[in-house]
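Run log // design_07
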């Protein structure tokens, strides 16, 4: 029997964890943040407060709800104390199966027996994490999107042993966080990462073949297919290294259709990792504004 959810612990407070804590607190949950880095914790809490204030200024968040959310946040570098008494533990540490298994092993020693565990992994196996957590029926994937406080979807990922009751509880939690959910049976890359990897890879293939410039491929998908972002704008945001590792994983698990295109491999080797380093498919200045035209872009658009 799963207990009602009052307190949520978020493990790892980087890009995703801080966003998950934001929507958890705004959903009315007592929200505890844990990270190995005290600096990351302080930065995450400051960022959540700033984003809540911005929401109020824009008229999107009620000011009383924002104040209540701020007062429901706490942070700690003590994992045992964070998960003790938590009803739901959501993990958002770096994408490594070994690290995630180690963390859930420790969490299981201190969290209540009936607590639900969730992972925000982009692609790794929920079934494998669940099997190593000692509570496979109460283990589930909650795949949020960046930036979490603005993106509406949560993919709920059902591992082989995840119970229907756990899925029901998590659907209700996501709804209280203001999200719409889809239910996905565990499969590499779920729905979103799998489709996105394929579109992004094909875009690199077209760029390499000289079919069109990066700008024109992006414009074609935005204006012709109604995508809110072009595939190169998207990969620069996600990180070319992150996208390449997802493609490599999908290639191993799903086959040839996902073989990473040579051009993305070369870009990663050249250190063109995207916005985070100021240079990916496009170039960015110090404020993060795109430099147009992108230096050397015509080189990749000329047919051989
Ligand atoms: N970035 C995205 O767009 C995105 C989208 C969906 C899912 N994800 C997934 O979310 C997870 C987190 O990604 P992110 O982009 O937020 O990473 P990130 O690097 O921004 O943050 C990771 C945080 O985890 C902390 N950390 C490292 N080791 C830890 C440990 N042992 N215990 C606790 N905290 C630890 C780090 O200090 C850091 O604050 C990954 O599994 C990733 O695949 C990312």
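design_07 sequence
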């Amino acid at each position: 029997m799963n207990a009602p959810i009052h307190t949520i612990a978020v493990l790892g407070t980087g890009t995703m964890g801080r966003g998950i804590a934001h929507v958890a607190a705004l959903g009315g949950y007592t929200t505890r943040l844990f990270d190995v880095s005290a600096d990351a914790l302080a930065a995450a809490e400051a960022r959540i407060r700033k984003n809540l204030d911005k929401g109020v200024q824009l008229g999107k968040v009620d000011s009383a709800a924002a104040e209540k959310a701020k007062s429901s946040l706490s942070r700690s570098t003590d994992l045992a104390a964070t998960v003790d008494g938590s009803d739901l533990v959501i993990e958002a540490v770096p994408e490594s199966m070994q690290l995630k298994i180690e963390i859930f092993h420790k969490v299981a020693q201190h969290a209540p027996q009936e607590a639900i565990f969730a992972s925000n992994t982009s692609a790794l196996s929920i079934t494998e994490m669940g099997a190593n957590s000692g509570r496979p029926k109460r283990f589930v994937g909650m795949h949020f999107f960046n930036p979490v406080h603005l993106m509406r979807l949560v993919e709920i990922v059902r591992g082989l042993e995840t119970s229907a009751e756990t899925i029901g509880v998590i659907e209700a939690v996501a709804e209280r966080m203001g999200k719409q959910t889809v239910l996905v049976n565990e499969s590499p890359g779920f729905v979103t990462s799998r489709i996105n990897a394929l579109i992004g890879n094909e875009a690199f293939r077209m760029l390499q073949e000289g079919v069109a410039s990066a700008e024109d491929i992006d414009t074609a998908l935005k204006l012709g297919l109604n995508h809110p972002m072009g595939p190169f704008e998207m990969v620069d945001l996600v990180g070319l290294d992150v996208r390449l590792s997802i493609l490599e994983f999908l290639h191993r698990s799903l086959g040839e259709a996902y073989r990473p295109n040579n051009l993305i491999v070369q870009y990663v080797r050249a250190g063109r990792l995207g916005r985070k380093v100021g240079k990916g498919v496009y170039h960015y200045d110090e404020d993060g504004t795109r430099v147009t035209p992108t230096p050397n872009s015509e080189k990749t658009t000329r047919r051989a």
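The longest helix spans residues 38-57.
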